[in-house]
Amino acid sequence: MQTMHRHFPKAALRGELVVTAPPAVQLDGQADRLSPGARIHGAQNMLVMSGALVGQDLTVNYLRDAAGLVSEVWILNPEEARERRAGAQPARNFLFSSEVNTTPRDDGKTPFNQLPVYPQQ
Question: In which region does residue 11 sit, left (phi positive, over 0), alpha (psi from -120 to 50) or beta (all else)?
């Protein structure tokens, strides 16, 4: 069987998908949902129903809709899975100290004589 080369949108992200109970899925180990009308393309690029994939651990490329739901999924064949692609960035509500902008800031409560001195440009 000849494998065709599929082109994925640049915005598509890589992930590990497990369909638990459609439309509920796990994407990279986190609970998620398929959007209404989500399309799942199999490794042969044919549409696959989410119910047929329950319990399978699949390497996929995916897109999200404006509401943040998974709207389009491509199940990858082994050749496609070897290609490098960015995954979703982990959601977190904190910053590491290396990510914080370390330029001097004024909080509005600092006395004038204690304000930071900025370099002259």
Answer: alpha
